[in-house]
Amino acid sequence: MYEDLPDLDTSARLTVRFKEHLEKEAVARTVIDAARTNGVDENLVRRLFATYAKLQLSNYTVRMPRVLGMDEKYIAKVPRFVIGDVENRKLLDIRENRLSLNLDQYFDRMEGKDSVEIIYQDMYKGNLTLTKRHFRRAVTGVDKFHVLALSNTAVEMVRRDLNKSLGNRKRIKLKSRNKLFLARWETCKRETRKQLNDFFLLYTLLGEAYWLKERLYGIYDCSTRAEAEQALTDWMNGVQPDLVKPFTVVTSAVKNWRPYMLRYFEHPLTNAYTESLNGLISEINRVGRGYSFETLRAKALLKYGDAKRIIDLYNFDLMSCESDEEMQFLMTAVVSSGVDISTLTDALRQGTLYVDSCEGARQLRDNGAHRFLDDAAPR
């Protein structure tokens, strides 16, 4: 027989108080910092964090914003489903995949969906089906960022096809300046305009592709939907025969998604959220070899989000619960209104979000600077 010791956690072989302290340390600090500061093994801190995060986020949900953004982003070379608050530029959640079954279960248990008025998404039909099923009161639009990105892709296709017919020196020169054709004519510098004109004199078709792209951008400067409707029709009719093939990716998108593209002129919102999100995902991928997806999501939501237990925010009559499952949900449910994207990006750049070490990368502090060593011994 063993005496009951309520102040000890036998599974972790720690006192309950010290275990809770380490859990909070693992959220507030990097794993290495927490381990060194408290004189324990890194693997112990990592295990405690994983268990604590799983418990805290088991019933995680988000406060639905007025304008919801849905997107697919590749993180660690795997497509993830990302939702965010477009107006306030906040990351709400990242799901491991975008399988319909998993996302249906995710949104089925989410409260406040009726508060969503507008949904901006990419041109993925699965997301459209999802919004129609779960957000029946919301109107859906395609983020203009995705439309304009397709036109840049078309210009790049023209440049690549042109490269195939050039000699080695000209091909290398044109390839090295591929980013130049992303520039907007109205906002670029005088030197950039001169470089573009020099290329257009040499390669006429490339110039025509660039100006076709610029005219598509110009449609979003229209003041009314009717004006934009006509401008889009004129643009479709103005695609030169030589550019039909490379711009098929754009014209097909316009044919399939035209009403959703034009929704922008009823609810004009900038693409700042999408651009910020792209920057965040790029930063994640830059240092992503030291992360697991679960760790990244948990650390971001627990440390930089405003996740709070529902029972701490609202008063519930737990005795009126119809089942133990409902009571358990209310006791453990966590709600959040998201994580500021710029805050999360800064944390990634500084290394303060760094948690996992699946390839043995280590983080050291040197006069406040954060560095990663590639030659650390794997664990």
Give the overall shape, derived from the CA principal axes. Answer: elongated
Give the fraction of residues assigned to helices: 40-55%
Low-confidence stretches: 356-379
The N- to C-terminal Cα distance equals: 38 Å
**Main β-sheet, spatial strand arrangement:** 8-7-4-5-6-11
Number of strand segments: 13
Integer-rounded radius of gyration: 26 Å
Q: What is the helix/strand order?
A: EEHHHEEEEHEHEHHHHHHHHEHHEEHEE
Binned strand content: 5-15%
On the 0 to 100 scale, the average pLDDT is: 81
Number of helices: 16
Explain briefly what this protein structure is.
Helix content is 50%, strand content 15%. It contains 16 helices and 13 strands.
List the helices and strands and how they pair.
Blueprint: E1 8-9, E2 14-15, H1 16-28, H2 31-38, H3 42-56, E3 60-62, E4 67-75, E5 78-85, E6 90-95, H4 100-108, E7 118-121, H5 125-134, E8 139-142, H6 144-163, H7 168-176, H8 190-202, H9 204-219, H10 225-237, H11 248-261, H12 272-286, H13 293-304, E9 308-309, H14 310-313, H15 324-332, E10 334-336, E11 339-340, H16 341-350, E12 362-366, E13 369-373
Parallel strand pairs: 3-10, 4-7, 7-8
Antiparallel strand pairs: 1-2, 4-5, 5-6, 6-11, 9-10, 12-13
Helix pairs in contact: 1-2, 1-3, 2-3, 3-13, 6-9, 6-11, 8-9, 9-10, 12-16
